[in-house]
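Can anyone check this?
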Amino acid sequence: MSKIANASIKAFGPAAPQVDFVQSSEQLITFTIGQLQDLITNAIQPLQDEVRDLKATVARQDEKIATLESTQEQEITRLCLDIAYDRQRITKLEIPEPEPPKEYSPKVASHLDEIVKALIDRENQSKLSGQKWDYMAFWEVEQLLDLSHRRISQLADIARNDPRFALGWHPRKKNMKVFRLNHFDLGFIAHELHKEMNGEK
C-alpha cells in the first residue's frame, strides 16, 4: 500500500523544468541579405517620396518667384513710359508749339552749326571731367563767333525755333542766359525714371 501511495504522489508532483524551452519573445529570426535590403528600402521609401515632393514644390516656388520678378520689371518699365508720355503731354500743353523754322541765311546757319559743335565738345569734356558743364553763356558765344552781344541775342531768338537748341538760364547766375542742346527725348526720360525707381545713381 505504501508503494502505491508513493507512486501516486510522484505522478502528481511538480513537473521537471524543460531546459530547452525558449519563450517566443526571445526567438531568433533569420533574414537573407535580399530580404533585409527590401525591409530597409520599404522603410525609407516614404521619406524619399517626401523629399522628392519637397524638391518639386521648391522648384515650382522658384519658377513663380522668377515670373513675379519678371512681371514686376515689366510693370516698372511700363509705368516709366506712361509717366514719360504724361510729362511730354504736359510739356506740350504748357509750352506753345514753336513756329516752323524760317529759312536761315548761309551765314546764320554756319553760326548755329558752330554753336552746336562747341556745345557737343563741351558736353564731351563734361563727361570726361565728371562736372556738369553742358551750356555756353552768351558772352562765350560772342567770343566764339567774334560777334556783338546784340547779334548773339538775334541768333538766340532764331535758335528758339531750332529743335537742336534749348535756351535757358545759367544754373548759378539766374540773370545770365545760356545756350544748351535740346535733350528732351522720351527714351532718355524713361531711362532716368527707371533709374530713380530702382534707386540707381
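Reply from J.R.: I decoded it. The two ends are 124 Å apart (CA to CA).
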